[in-house]
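Quick one, tokens below. Sequence please?
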């Protein structure tokens, strides 16, 4: 498997390439499709070569271009723990962004508990888990090889004792054997 960062200076967007499929983690800001296309060309792939998209949480910088990417033929995987957070993000986007509303009738709905089977079907060994803290709908994808794609979950060494929700999310990630963290912002790091 190969991992590429196809985001820009302000947001990391990861392309995972297995032997059989391509999965994009996070979509970036609204109206950012051309920038994603430029970064994708550096990998030898086009946006239309992506098979599936998931987002770590419904904030505009991570989920703002979902429909634009879907319009290129990419299937969006909607996690059960995220569905009710679409509308609040969309209300916030009105008048502030050139946002294309997410169509809800053609997504692949996935319960987090079924994620291991789904990932296996696209050539990835791992699981998607709920990791609330930054936001209630935050998820992380953890590969069995130790990589975690965490979105905006704060690094554990930045947390205080009162950050109970995020501390619990880190316990979950450590229990899954995470050793390399691919955050939504900043550089990849080891734990």
């Amino acid at each position: 498997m190969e991992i590429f960062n196809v985001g820009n200076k302000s947001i990391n967007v990861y392309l995972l390439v297995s032997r059989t499929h391509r999965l994009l983690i996070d979509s970036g800001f609204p109206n950012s499709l051309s920038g994603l296309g430029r970064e994708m060309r550096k990998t030898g792939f086009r946006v239309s070569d992506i098979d599936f998209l998931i987002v770590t949480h419904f904030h505009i910088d991570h989920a703002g271009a979902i429909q634009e990417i879907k319009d290129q033929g990419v299937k969006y995987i909607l996690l059960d723990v995220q569905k009710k957070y679409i509308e609040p993000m969309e209300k916030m986007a009105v008048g502030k962004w050139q946002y294309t509303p997410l169509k809800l009738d053609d997504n692949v709905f996935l319960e987090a508990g079924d994620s291991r089977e789904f990932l296996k079907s696209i050539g990835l060994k791992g699981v998607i888990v709920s990791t609330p803290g930054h936001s209630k709908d935050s998820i992380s994808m953890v590969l069995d090889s130790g990589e975690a794609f965490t979105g905006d979950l704060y690094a554990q060494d930045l947390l205080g004792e009162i950050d109970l929700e995020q501390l619990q999310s880190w316990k979950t990630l450590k229990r899954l054997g995470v050793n390399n963290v691919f955050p939504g912002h900043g550089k990849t790091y080891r734990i």
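The two ends are 21 Å apart (CA to CA). Helices lie at 33-41, 60-63, 66-70, 86-93, 115-121, 164-175.
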